Amino acid sequence: MAGQVNPLQAGLQEPDKTSDLEAFVGYNLKRAYIVMQNDFRKALGQDGPSARVFSALSLTVQFPNITQSMLARKLGIERSGLVAIIDELEQLGHLKRTHVPGDRRVQALVPTEAGVAAYQSAVQSVRAHEASILAHLDKKEITMLNVLLKKIRIQGEDS
Amino acid sequence: MAGQVNPLQAGLQEPDKTSDLEAFVGYNLKRAYIVMQNDFRKALGQDGPSARVFSALSLTVQFPNITQSMLARKLGIERSGLVAIIDELEQLGHLKRTHVPGDRRVQALVPTEAGVAAYQSAVQSVRAHEASILAHLDKKEITMLNVLLKKIRIQGEDS
DNA sequence: TATTGTTATACTCTATAACTATA
DNA sequence: TATAGTTATAGAGTATAACAATA
């Protein structure tokens, strides 16, 4: 028996001890992000848009005639990655790729009526999802959280 | 020209206008998470551990003889997903899978001396990375951020 | 019957590199 | 030369389902 260690006497003994990891913002950020993402999917349903499709549709509705390059830049992803997202939205009839006079390379994105309606419906679901998952946070905390998260993002975009 | 819209007069006209998306915690969380993740990789280097390997090593060092199932539960991932992570750490010589008397199904994870040293070195890099990327946040803000992120995680684990 | 570790498999999200057509 | 959109491809990271060994 000497030298043998039963996990019930080691790891299991302190199963709820706070882990060192929880001192790291990165770890807490990842765990919270996964929770939000899973709940987003559950709230929007199988037929609803994924988070990335929702965000692309949102910007297209808010900035009609935005180009794909501009949209990719705003979303912080590569142009190549946006193609499939726009394909999906176009197939759903939520937006159209339109040619622009003066520069035949670019394709401006124009939301359709159905696209605007789909967005407005989705926004309500997303708001409900956030209200539910953030139920234990008050308004000030949510504002603070958004401010702090944006500070991280800005710092990352600078460097 | 009638009905034609130049993107320079539409989307491009207000390129820095705050997007509706930025009102959503989920969106800000995702963007901040990506920033942290990218900087983590850059800070730890190509030879350094990925975030998920680092977190598994951290818990193994802190809770020696933890089992894979317990570790997966703590990390919030599936057992199956942990196998490759533990494989990698074992191949690096940072931990060993050991048999446990009394239950021949489980394999307790024991960090090696090299594993503990590697962890301590990695922790310093992670601390430096967080200090750098969170340079614009003071201590109180970081504490607040961790508290708020944990609230989201708890809420998600409950539901 | 239930649990541990494992394998096989597939899916989501993303990046890189190279191509085309334009500028 | 540079840019916009595209394609092909690969790599993380994760989940689900099924399996063998063991409880």
Task: Outline the structure in words.
The structure is a homodimer of 159-residue chains. The first copy, chain A, has helices spanning 25-44, 51-62, 68-75, 79-91, 113-133, 139-158; strands at residues 66-67, 95-99, 107-111. In chain A, β2 and β3 (107-111) form a beta hairpin. Chain A is mainly alpha-helical. Chain A starts with 24 loop residues before the first helix and ends with a helix. The first copy, chain A, has 6 helices and 3 strands; from the N terminus they run ααβααββαα. Chain A has a 3-stranded antiparallel sheet with strand order 1-3-2. At the A-B interface, α1, α2, β1, α5 and α6 of A face α1, α2, β1, α5 and α6 of B. Chain B binds a DNA duplex (23 and 23 nucleotides) through α4.
Q: Biggest sheet of chain A: strands, sense, closure?
A: 3 strands, antiparallel
Question: Treating each run of at least 4 consecutive H or I residues as one helix, how many helices of chain A?
Answer: 6
Q: Helical percent range of chain A?
A: 55-70%
Largest interface: A-B, 78 and 77 residues
**H/E element sequence of chain A:** HHEHHEEHH
Task: Please identify the structural class of chain A as seen in this structure.
Answer: mainly alpha
Quick check: average pLDDT of chain A?
91
Q: Could you tell me the strand content of chain A as a percent range?
A: 5-15%
Terminal CA distance of chain A reads 55 Å
Which assembly state applies to the chains in this document? Answer: homodimer
Morphology of chain A = globular
Number of strands of chain A: 3
The rounded Rg of chain A comes to 22 Å
